[in-house]
Amino acid sequence: MKGRMQAGAAALAIAVIFAATMTYALPAQPDTPAAPSPATPATPVAASPAVEAAAPSDPAVATDARLAGDEERTRLIVDLSRRITLGAFTLANPYRVVVDLPDVIFALPNEAGHEGRGLVSAYRFGLFAPGKARLVIDVGAPVKIDKAFVLDPVDGQPARLVVDLVKTDRESFMKSVAAPVRRAEDPPGLRASLAANGDTRPVIVLDPGHGGIDSGAVNGAAGINEKTVVLDIARALRDKLEATGRYRTVMTREGDSFVPLGDRVRIARELQAKLFISLHADSLSRRGNDDVRGATVYTLSDKASDAEAQRLADDENRADLIAGLDLSEEPSDVAGILLDLAQRETKNFSAQFARTLGGAVAGAARMHKSPLKSAGFKVLKAPDVPSVLFELGYLSSKRDVDLMTSPEWRSNVTDAMVTAIDAYFSAQVAKPSATSISVGSAAAGANGADGVTTNGMQGSGIQAQPAAIRP
Ligand SMILES: [Zn+2]
User: Fold this and answer.
1) Is the pLDDT of residue 381 over 70?
2) 36 preceded by cis ω (within 30°)?
3) By the 8 A CB rule, do 434 and 352 touch?
4) Distance 60 CA to ligand 1 centre (A)
5) Distance, CA 215 to ligand 1 centroid (Å)?
6) How far is the CA of 207 from the centre of ligand 1 (A)?
7) Domains and CATH numbers, the chain
8) Could you report the per-residue pLDDT of 103-134, keeping only the tens digit for each?
9) In whole angstroms, how far apart are CA 84 and each of 60, 97, 102, 151, 465?
10) Distance from residue 392's CA to the centre of ligand 1 (Å)
11) Under 8 Å CB-to-CB from 426, ≥6 apart: which residues?
């Protein structure tokens, strides 16, 4: 580690010399509140088609990264295979610096970004949107982007991205914060064709959590992260659902890309999906929790069913913040209709599917000791799409990791999910009020329509605890 820091310091000295003579790709941030978005001409990033067209087609590769400096001035340096353009801006609540890049492949050491130095507490990197990468730097205090530029390769040194941050006060920081930017990209074309082709089969939206710059929970020792596990399982589930011929399935992400939470909800709503299933894997960072295991099905509620559910919802709701989105620009379209009848009915259907799913999966996988819970998950807030969030297990548990990565377990669990989905939809077809769903456990659906209507998912209303708990 020492050697790396010294190397960093040397690179800093060299870079400072170059910085004195070169033209920056990015000027210092303007001081006005109406600072440009990262897509304005002042900050030529990948958002501009002209820039993309001019750039070589192969993505640049980031091979190493290091921090140098102290609490007054800190520099982040990223080695690159070639020169690229960048845009940088700051965000508040919490303080962050976001560096937008064109398509970059990050081949950085595993530990990159985990440890801070000087003004930087940590940083993340990854794909933000197709063809666009992003670095998000967490800073513990207000900073100013003094310089942000890319150096050409020279004298055997790779090209280098350099971000210089200097300490500032909160007032100056708030003045420099970029105008909020949210992605306003059209959903994939698939959606239009789904709506137009006259196919009346129900649409199921599968939502693999996290992605791209947001890895979700990570088990470094096992070398796996949540975004990959849930994507693999979502793909397997999609294939099985498609094979039944009974459903149209859409994934909120097909690959390792970041999708904001609001967009996931929007996809389900635009498609008028009949079911939305968000897939995740939990993790407990506190020591002594290695034995906490098992799958849990969550539904939406204003008040969390218990403290752990609240903790998890807080974790999962951080996804947009992790990826460097400004949460003050949350769309408010959902808020106004939360309490109408459709919302109430949606909640009942969500609870019904959660019980069915919990019952079915209990026959295939180990469930958490309280397998049905609720909390305020942003991704479950579609007022008109029954939605559940399925935590497959704990990445902090070695035994759960062994299961979640085993083909047999994955096969059993996705089979059970198909069974639950079939049962849920056949009950709806048979009788819209769905009085009896019996999958996996005799108790599932036993409380009937009235129970479904009044009980939701909270407290003693949960009468359908999965019966079979397997190791
Ligand atoms: Zn998650």
Assistant:
1) yes
2) no
3) yes
4) 29
5) 9
6) 11
7) 2-176 (2.60.40.3500), 190-329+337-461 (3.40.630.40)
8) 899 999 988 998 999 999 999 999 888 888 99
9) 7, 18, 7, 9, 55
10) 10
11) none
**pLDDT class of 288 with cuts at 50, 70, 90:** low
Token representation of residue 436:
């009896």
Tokens 């039944």, residue located: 244
CA distance 247 to 198: 13
Q: What's the CA gap between 179 and 197, in Å, rounded?
A: 40
Cα(329) to ligand 1 centroid in Å equals: 22
Tell whether the model's pLDDT for residue 332 goes beyond 70.
no
Residues with CB under 5 A from ligand 1 (ion): 209, 216, 280, 316
Residue among 184, 136, 76 at smallest CA distance from 322: 136
How crowded is the C-beta side of 378, counted as CA atoms within 13 Å? 21
Residue 283 Cα to ligand 1 midpoint, Å, equals: 9
Tokens of 78: 């990223």
Cα 217 to averaged position of ligand 1 atoms, centre (Å): 6
Q: How far apart are the first and last CA of the chain?
A: 42
CB atoms near residue 319 (< 10 Å): 22
Token digits of residue 204: 């199921």
| The pLDDT of residue 8 | 39
pLDDT confidence bin for 325, thresholds 50/70/90: confident
319 C-alpha to ligand 1 centroid (Å):
8
Higher pLDDT, 39 or 60: 60
CA of 370 to the centre of ligand 1 (A): 18
DSSP string of 294-313?
A: -EEEEEE-SS-SSHHHHHHH
The whole-number pLDDT of residue 195 equals: 57
CA of 365 to the centre of ligand 1 (A): 19
Spatial separation of the C-alpha atoms in residues 375 and 304, rounded to whole Å: 4
Ligand 1 centroid–CA 45 distance in Å is 29
* DSSP code of residue 186: P
The Å distance, Cα 352 to ligand 1 centre, comes to 22
**Listed residue (231, 234, 273) closest to 255, CA to CA:** 231
What pLDDT band is residue 340 in, cutting at 50, 70 and 90?
low
Q: Three-class SS of residue 244?
A: helix
Does residue 370 have a pLDDT over 60?
yes
pLDDT digits 0-9 by tens, 227-264: 999 999 999 999 999 999 999 999 999 999 899 999 99
pTM of the model: 0.70
For ligand 1, the distance from its centroid to the CA atom of residue 391, given in whole angstroms, is 8
